[in-house]
């Protein structure tokens, strides 16, 4: 074998080794990224999860608002990416505990009794005005001493929460998407899909409650959602009795 042939063979071998090492490195990084995502969502391979959907508050029928359907589709894509499976049930059919399966609960407490139960049990510092009568505080959030009003189509709020049962052996989280309107529910699911890596780096597998503001949904739909504050501490602390908020935030 002359030098030219030897150099060609060595070049081919080196290229093959480099390609193999590159493939191994990419596979390792992809798997590590996937494992982190699965840990954050509590969705290991072939695990089961629960999608709890509310009813359309503006309909007398047992209908689901189209924006809530879009929210479920975005969550379904996240679940599929983790290699897990989802069961979709309505809020009035969800009669089971939490922590055994990851749960994604969509809708405010006025249209989703499952959401109301979760908030009562795990977010005692949050109240949502579900009074059907019109007024400036309709659907307003009270979180601790703060009140957040909405101006429909212009400024609306939504809570995005990752909560855990806190019981030994029950490690699956509950994700809440509690919005003042249906479009804010979808905005929260989209925010989670876009920012789950950053949230996982910041919070790990711990609980958090974020208040988001959806800006000008009548023009931009669910795409423009801004973080208002991390309200975890206030949301998990019981409200004073009587609950009298000191500050009120206008929808602006």
Shape: elongated
Number of strands: 11
Give the topology string: H per helix, E per strand: HEHEEHEEEEEHEHEHE
Q: Give me the number of helical elements.
A: 6
Distance between the termini: 79 Å
Structural class: alpha/beta
- Strand % is 15-25%
What level of helicity do the residues show?
25-40%
Low-pLDDT stretches: none
**Rounded radius of gyration (Å):** 23 Å
Largest sheet: 7 strands, mixed
User: What's the rounded overall pLDDT mean?
Assistant: 84
- Sheet with the most strands: spatial strand order: 2-1-3-8-7-9-10
Question: What are the salient characteristics of this protein?
Answer:
38% helix, alpha/beta, 7-stranded mixed sheet, 11 strands, 252 residues, 4-stranded mixed sheet, 23% strand
Question: Please, could you describe this protein's structure?
Answer:
Helix content is 38%, strand content 23%. The chain is α/β, with parallel strands linked by helices. The protein has helices at 3-41, 66-81, 113-122, 182-203, 217-220, 232-236, and strands at residues 48-53, 85-90, 102-106, 126-128, 141-143, 146-148, 155-163, 174-179, 208-215, 225-230, 247-249. Strands 2-1-3-8-7-9-10 form a seven-stranded mixed sheet, with helices on both faces. It has a four-stranded mixed sheet with strand order 4-5-6-11. The protein has six helices and eleven strands. Strand 1, helix 2 (66-81) and strand 2 (85-90) form a beta-alpha-beta unit. The chain is elongated and about 90 Å long.
